[in-house]
Amino acid sequence: MAGGPPSEVQIRVLPSSSRRSGGGGGGVVHPVEVDSPPSRPASAGATPSPIVYKEVKHFKKWMPWLIPAFVVANTVMFIITMYVNDCPKNSVSCIARFLGRFSFQPFKENPLLGPSSSTLQKMGALKVSKVVDKHQAWLLITCIWLHGGVFHLLANMLSLLVIGIRLEQEFGFVRIGLLYIISGLGGSLMSALFIQSNISVGASGALFGLLGGMLSELITNWTIYANKVAAFMTLVVIIVINLAVGILPHVDNFAHIGGFLSGFFLGFVFLIRPHFGWVNQRYAPPGYSPNSVRSKFKMYQCILWLVSLIILIIGFTVGLVMLLRGVDANDHCSWCHYLSCAYEIGSQLNVTCATNGKSGLYNLSNPSDSQIQGLCSQLCN
């Protein structure tokens, strides 16, 4: 019994990243149109074998749960912080006093609608003197779960949902969770090295780490993108705008820069994906021989992975050693203070009345004894 020619199969990877450029397909491998091969004469009654198309899953689509959990955790921590703050008991005046102990500190003390500086320190805000003198290194991590106020919390959590959920869907909770935490640590570390007079809180460093990871993911997985230049330019514009916002007063741009750099190098390590040629070979059906044997990753991907890992290890090691030795990085970089205006807030004076326990935080530079006495009288009356 005569048979037709062997079936031919060709597959194409439509990665999830192509959806960002207008493609579809749900992250699976789809068939490609191929020209029919020349048919050999067949015996009477025999029909030529059709070209076989095969669809196989490759890039798994994850169900995001960790990023929403981070949002819930940050929100719960803010509620607990406001409960501990108890403005009516500890301050002379409060905003939204009808909220009881959840009311906010005065605008002159905290324009973000949040707790006092002393409360944030109790809850684990980053204070460089505590890290250096009291060896409380865990403050580098705890500070990224705290926020200075409602406005601060809303801005960060909305950004986290927009950026983080898409990344977790693409790469899973383990890699994105590590990227978030380590980037937050990197942001706290750089902030502590350059801004040593004020406390620091917020998830901005971790958020910028996700942005940095998106950029390096685009670079290292360059071959699987459809509209490469458009995607690259869009992402760069978003990053530049966000970094420019960090130059505004009262914003800790060093945390943004440290988080971004950490996430950028971590992206080369955590977010690397096999290139198209390997996937085409890996999921080829039986009987189909690819033109050549290809490695899973391209050479440039392996080089970026190794170099980034070395930079991360050296960077975090040197940074931690410098911090624990009490080094002020501004002494070694005369122009770095132009990158952030956070330290230009001024000297903060925390005054507490000994009789009723009420406290207040005031931005005063070199206050006189009469000014301090006046503030004490105001708090104690």
Automatic annotation (TrEMBL):
Start and end residues of each stretch annotated as Disordered: 1-47
InterPro entries linked to this entry: Peptidase_S54_rhomboid-like, Peptidase_S54_rhomboid_dom, Rhomboid-like_sf
Record's signal peptide: none
Compartments where located: Membrane
Listed transmembrane segments: 62-83, 137-165, 177-195, 201-222, 229-248, 254-272, 302-324
Keyword tRNA processing belongs to the record: no
SUPFAM superfamilies in alphabetical order: Rhomboid-like (SSF144091)
UniProt domain Peptidase S54 rhomboid: residue ranges: 135-271
GO BP terms in the entry: proteolysis
Keyword Transmembrane: yes
Top-tier EC class: hydrolase
Molecular function via GO: serine-type endopeptidase activity
EC number from the UniProt entry: 3.4.21.105
GO cellular component: Golgi apparatus; membrane
Topological relation to the membrane, as annotated: Multi-pass membrane protein
Reaction(s) catalysed by this chain's protein: Cleaves type-1 transmembrane domains using a catalytic dyad composed of serine and histidine that are contributed by different transmembrane domains
Family statement drawn from the similarity comment of this UniProt entry: Belongs to the peptidase S54 family.
Role, per record: Serine protease involved in intramembrane proteolysis.
PANTHER family assigned: RHOMBOID-LIKE PROTEIN 4, RHOMBOID-RELATED
Name the UniProt record assigns to this protein: RHOMBOID-like protein
